[in-house]
Amino acid sequence: MQISNVGELLAVRDIDATLQFGQCFSSKKWTVLFVSLFATFGIGVLIALVGYIIDFSDKESIWMLIGSACAGLLVFFPYLYINSGKRKVKLWLQDSVILKARTNKAGETLEVRMFAIFAKATAIQIRFSYMGKRYVKSSIQKGKISCIPVFNKYVDKDILIAYSPIYDQVMLIKPKSEQRIRSEMSK
After folding, report:
1. What is the DSSP string of 75-142?
2. What is the pLDDT of residues 153-162, one digit of tens each?
3. Smallest Cα–Cα separation from 173: which of 20, 12, 7?
């Protein structure tokens, strides 16, 4: 099965992960989180500026200004990383096709999430056919097979993927979106 007009069926929010970059943080919850964090740090900077303007010798205001600005910068870099991933997925979706694929486990490891908290992380291998040619793609990042917890739910299953032939990228479709697509295709 192959669907070439993906634009109507898929958006960035329907993609759960890519083999190259791992999990795609595309839900609106992430946007709300970052906007609220930026607003909080912005308010902190404004309060510090007002306190400094009122009393030029107020050292607490200077430290609050520096702290709020540094915290805002620490949040800004993950925001840039997540948005760059979303932009790439949006680019890859422009020419992508939806294909049936079979996944297999390519590796597994325990990953430390926080102190003394471990999560099972899996590397996957995806087999699919496109234009009469068979492909086998693995979750590889920077030349090493990457094990990521999001891949756990896709191991040893028949799934739908979005494949971008121009960029040679495989995107894993979220299970709820996959159900919606399968129901629309059966009509």
Report:
1. HHHHHHHHHHHHHHHHHHHTT-EEEEEEEEEEEEEEEEEETTEEEEEEEEEEEEEETTEEEEEE-EET
2. 888 999 999 9
3. 12
**Residue 50 CB neighbours (<10 A):** 11
For residue 101 the two structure tokens come to 């694929």
DSSP letter, residue 51: H
Residues 104, 181, 14, 12: what is their CA dihedral angle, to the nearest 10 degrees?
110
User: d(Cα 171, Cα 162) in Å, to the nearest integer?
Assistant: 5
What is the reported pTM?
A: 0.75
134 pairs with which residues across the strands? 129
- Report d(CA 94, CA 6) in Å as an integer: 8
Query: By the 8 A CB rule, do 51 and 64 touch?
Result: yes
Cβ partners under 8 Å of residue 158, min gap 6:
100, 101, 102
Residue 186 to residues 1, 4, 97, 159, 163: CA-CA distances in angstroms?
Answer: 12, 16, 17, 16, 21
